[in-house]
Amino acid sequence: MDHPIYKHRPVQTISSLARALRISESLLLGIAGRATDLYIGPKPKPKKNGGIRYVFDTKPPLKSLLRRINATFFKHTQFPKYLTGSLSGRDFVANVEIHRDARNAVTEDIAQFFDCISADCVYRIWKDFFHFGDEVAALLTKLTTKDGRVFQGTPTSSYLANLAFWDREFALVEKLKARGIRYSRYVDDITISTVSTLAEGDKRWAISQIYAMIGAAGFKPQRSKHGSFSANSPIRIMGLNANRAPTLPKQERSAIRAQVYQLEQRVAQADQSVDLSAALSAAIGKVGRLKRLHPSEGAALRLRLDAIRRTLDAQPVVTHATTPIQASNEVDTAPF
């Protein structure tokens, strides 16, 4: 079965953990003791669909320690290909690629996903998946959770999210595969699809299996975000078309081209608005997304944005001259 695998020997004692993380045992325990005070946030982060998510970060020395936990343990974990979120070499396009040539697809979302990854869930990951000792699992749980749960945006949060169903997801994937149904999960977004017609009864069965898996782990589906698609209309997965190879919808491509044209017009009219650089950066990000899926079109638009950047860089910096009154005040108030 295709399931996550940790490829190294389990850590059984705190002293062994300290050695593995290349930190003194006293410092490790000290950071764990004040880990809850080393969180930053929440910080609003725009979603691609126009919504807002709130993410957290961590301060030193916790942040560097969590990154070391990633490098020491999570990056030595083999994740199955059906997990595509926040993993090296995988992204939203890789997620949709699993479902190329889909004739039917169903999308599901897990409600309040990170809020529901509890400290108990994290302890079981360290204890039962990694097979670490009790004290080690408890200490790592203390370092990677706050107030009894995982906080999205911290260095270890995405890895823990990928392991939230480590003990049951692979069995679901095998059940679906036996009926010709493909599966992927991008953090909290679950997608299933078929290259042939999916009978209504099979679709209901597959959805019930997904709900049973997430329910058994203590999560709930976000039923308002349930989506069902068939080949007689665009099959949209994570904002991309998946009827054939992943592509951006025509409307989005057109909007990106229009955004680049509007920037060119503003520069041609010598617009010196303070938001121009921010608008250019936003356009560069969207063109990068387009180029990922439509290389020729994206490359041509990027050349146009590069020309805009060169024009802006060549413009003189506007400064405000000091008025005579200001100069006089500066002299009058300067110390002798």
Oligomer: single chain
β-strand amount:
5-15%
Summing up helix and strand content along with how strands pair, one would put the structural category as: alpha+beta
User: Which overall shape is indicated by the principal axes computed on the Cα atoms?
Assistant: flat
Order of helices and strands: EHHEEHEHEHHHHEEHEEEHHHH
Distance between termini?
A: 81 Å
The side-by-side strand order for the widest beta sheet comes to 6-7-5-8
**CA gyration radius, whole angstroms:** 25 Å
Give the averaged pLDDT, no decimals: 92
> Regions with pLDDT < 50 over 5+ consecutive residues?
321-336
**Major sheet details:** 4 strands, antiparallel
- What is the number of strand segments? 10
Total number of domains:
3
Number of helical segments?
13
Helix percent reads 40-55%
Helix-strand blueprint:
Layout: E1 5-6, H1 14-20, H2 25-33, E2 39-46, E3 52-58, H3 62-72, E4 77-78, H4 92-97, E5 104-109, H5 119-129, H6 134-144, H7 157-162, H8 169-178, E6 182-186, E7 189-194, H9 200-216, E8 227-230, E9 236-237, E10 240-241, H10 250-268, H11 276-293, H12 295-314, H13 324-333
Antiparallel strand pairs: 1-4, 2-3, 5-7, 5-8, 6-7, 9-10
Helix pairs in contact: 2-6, 5-6, 10-11, 10-12, 11-12
